[in-house]
Specification:
Layout lengths: L1 E8 L3 H10 L13 E4 L5 E4 L9 E9 L2 E10 L3 H9 L2 E8 L3 H10 L4 E6 L5 E5 L8 E6 L3
Parallel strand pairs: 1-5, 6-9
Antiparallel strand pairs: 1-6, 2-4, 3-7, 4-5, 7-8, 8-9
């Protein structure tokens, strides 16, 4: 398992970027990459608590790198998602820690065996697969595991 990023839920990515840029060299953000969107209509596989949702969702995202720490800014756009639920109930803040894994199914089985629930499971056409696990009992932090295409 290798650390990947921290996920930060925000209500407006543009406003968040403006804030971080205003801090200038204090945080050392040289250049910000382009935002991208996740659209559940394009997922090959998509489950929330073990069921395929009836509604679609869209999420705007952007990664920023602050002194080697990758932070994923996440802005819910459309549909009911765990991101939107977090924003509505807790406000903006750190939502998850993500790790790369070699075998997502194997790691999922280990976590389920320990009583950890899978919140969301996604497989993209690119072959990237990721799942979020309800590890919020301690520290109020979700865990995301990401498997890159083989």
């Amino acid at each position: 398992m290798e650390f990947y990023h921290i996920g930060l839920i925000v209500s407006d990515i543009a406003r968040a970027i403006e804030h971080y840029q205003s801090l200038g060299c204090t945080l050392g953000i040289p250049r910000l990459p382009s935002e991208f969107f996740l659209d559940s209509s394009a997922y090959l596989d998509y489950e929330v608590y073990g069921k395929r949702p009836d509604t679609l969702h869209k999420t705007k995202m952007m990664f920023i790198n602050i002194h080697g720490l990758l932070i994923e800014l996440v802005q819910p756009i459309e549909g009911e998602t765990m991101y939107k639920e977090f924003l509505n109930t807790k406000g903006e803040g750190i939502h998850h820690m993500a790790f790369y894994v070699d075998d997502l199914e194997e790691e999922t089985a280990k976590l389920i065996e320990k009583g950890i629930r899978v919140v969301t499971k996604v497989k993209l056409a690119s072959g990237v697969a990721f799942s979020y696990f309800d590890t919020a009992k301690v520290g109020n932090l979700i865990t995301e595991l990401v498997q890159l295409p083989k």
